[in-house]
Predict the 3D structure of the following.
Amino acid sequence: GAFQMCERGLEELHDISGTFLENREDTLEGSVATAIYEGSRPVMFEIQALVSPSNIGFARRTSVGIDNTRLNMISAVLEKKGGLQLTNQDVYINVAGGMRPDGTSPDLAVALAIYSSYKSVAASKRTLAIGEIGLTGELRSVQNTEKIWKEAARMGYEQVIMPLRNAEKLVKTADENKGCRVVGVKSLSDAMYAFTADAARR
């Protein structure tokens, strides 16, 4: 399990995700929760993005916790497939809590955090996003989505946006987590729509 130093020495952390999610009650612009499966449990954390006009002639892509090459790729797909004009925008990414997640499952959360900051919109519901983004803007399936979804439901998330292929496998068990719906999306543009779909009704 995960451990944290305290006065009595090492103490197991039963709610490891809580340490990486500061603003769990709010939906904030430029902030999207995601998760990776580490060891035997899902760990949830927050991706923060800040998009601001560049004033130095070339746009910066700066990331703490996410591979910079991946950030450049996601930014390019957001421009080409998502219609965002990022060529004259600086993009900063931070993985809150000092996490350095491996793998590609945080891709979608990174993209949605950038979209959220760029458009100045927050998610319509408490949302967690997972999925790998391909160069054509399609969402590719990732591992352990069922366990991540169950943990998201336990922690009070209202929806998990994930690749359609993953979502289709979960439909059979969807009654178990009534409070947290699964939103299956085929592409980045579908995910962007799902992210803000009910924002007007808040």
The longest helix spans residues 68-82. The radius of gyration is 17 Å.
